[in-house]
Design goal:
Blueprint: H1 22-63, E1 65-71, E2 89-97, E3 103-111, E4 119-124, E5 130-131, H2 137-189
Antiparallel strand pairs: 1-2, 1-4, 2-3, 4-5
Helix pairs in contact: 1-2
Length: 194
């Protein structure tokens, strides 16, 4: 044994093997395809989702604009209540002047602690309706990245689940095949040889 030289055979896994079944080859190709789909498709889904989310945030930033408004009611003693409001903001009535000179009144999120008549900044959309402040560029980048990563993981999870279902189906097929073979060979093993 000491003097023997080990021979490396190129592509030794691809050589014929009498124990290799057709289902084993199919399963290997399915798993290779699943991992390729996860790697390529997941990356593509993540990049496209992040790009679309970043574009959506940029569009919102371009459509919304800040306007000076006057607070109609005091927010000094108001505590922020409600699941849809941030902790340091409350919904209050404000009055502002539009670009065309018309006066408008509405309810918007404003900082707490202001007195009646205080000047506050509110955000309007392209239709001159009250809306929330757009996401900042840095926050939008982080959110787009998180959304892209989530999309990549979701796509990868779906592809992996599809591969596992195919693998489970091949296992069921092999179990059935083994059962048929055992039904054929099993009775011969039970005979006594005397």
């Amino acid at each position: 044994m000491r003097g023997t030289k080990r021979v490396r055979q190129l592509l030794w896994r691809w050589r014929s093997n009498p124990l290799r079944r057709h289902d084993d080859v199919v399963e290997a190709w399915i798993m290779l395809a699943v991992w390729a789909v996860i790697a390529i498709g997941g990356t593509l889904a993540g990049v496209l989702t992040a790009h679309a989310a970043d574009g959506s945030f940029a569009r919102l930033r371009s459509e919304r604009h800040p306007v000076q408004a006057v607070l109609v009611g005091s927010t000094a003693q108001t505590a922020a209540v409600g699941a849809d409001t941030p902790y340091n903001h409350v919904r209050a009535t404000v009055r502002w002047t539009a670009k065309d000179g018309s006066k408008h009144t509405g309810r918007a999120l404003v900082d707490t602690g202001h007195q009646t008549g205080s000047k506050v900044v509110v955000w309007l959309n392209s239709k001159e309706q009250l809306t929330t402040a757009p996401t900042s560029a840095s926050s939008a980048t982080v959110e787009a990245a998180v959304l892209g990563a989530g999309a990549a993981l979701a796509f990868g999870g779906l592809a992996f689940a599809a591969g596992r279902v195919a693998q489970w189906r091949l296992d069921q097929r092999r179990y059935d095949q083994w059962g048929r073979e055992w039904d054929r060979v099993g009775p011969r093993w039970r005979r006594k040889t005397t």
